[in-house]
Amino acid sequence: xxxxxxxxxxxxxxxxxxxxxxxxxxxxxxxxxxxxxxxxxxxxxxxxxxxxxxxxxxxxxxxxxxxxxxxxxxxxxxxxxxxxxxxxxxxxxxxxxxxxxxxxxxxxxxxxxxxxxxxxxxxxxxxxxxxxxxxxxxxxxxxxxxxxxxxxxxxxxxxxxxxxxxxxxxxxxxxxxxxxxxxxxxxxxxxxxxxxxxxxxxxxxxxxxxxxxxxxxxxxxxxxxxxxxxxxxxxxxxxxxxxxxxxxxxxxxxxxxxxxxxxxxxxxxxxxxxxxxxxxxxxxxxxxxxxxxxxx
Length: 296
What we know:
With 296 residues, this protein is α/β, with parallel strands linked by helices. The protein has a single domain, classed as Aminopeptidase. The protein has nine helices and 13 strands. The strands form four sheets. It has a seven-stranded mixed β-sheet, sandwiched between helices. It has a two-stranded parallel ribbon with strand order 4-7. Strands 5-6 form a two-stranded antiparallel ribbon. It is globular, with a radius of gyration of 19 Å.
């Protein structure tokens, strides 16, 4: 059974590396995948157009050029609504499944309660993905064959960069709907930088990213409403020289959210982001170095 997922999404993700890595900065796009397994579409009660509302559409295309600038880039091919690697491995809602979940599953997190666990229950405005319960084995299969290999690879890349440069920086790339969901729909800012309120990376990294985006005319806020998910929290450990930061981009800057097509502003945004990425590559490594112990 596990082979069926691997064959349907082949490869499930990819890492694109430059001939020579010139900076310890890894860009990651975990939610831009568009390969929807047929078995999943059969299970879903929603059409493909609706399921795509959870995609970070074209984010991989916006950031993929970092490879030409000497930095590696990782992206998922499977869609977020099929499996979300920006969650704990077993954030699962027992109401979704036939059969008993493993005892170690986290069934009580706020993300599970909101329908957005490792296997999502909803997309868009709380629209239920499945018309009936799905087998527990299906969830475990997705985690074992997609989630765990993804994170093993991400961890390996970070460790390799730290070994080579003494530090490693992960930039987790996402997009957000242009309008906030709530009682009062209102336009969102252009960019949201998430550093887990200063805990997932050195302040110098957040400062440089915000300054460079503002310099190019974008409105930027920090941590609200997106402070960074599991990836930012899990891979960011500034005291050891491991830094993780998340960037959320307003989709209205580069695409038509109804037709899922890039707009004429796409190329300008891509160019701006590549300039910002190049600036991140030049950041002073001493500002990101591991903390020395008091004895040293």
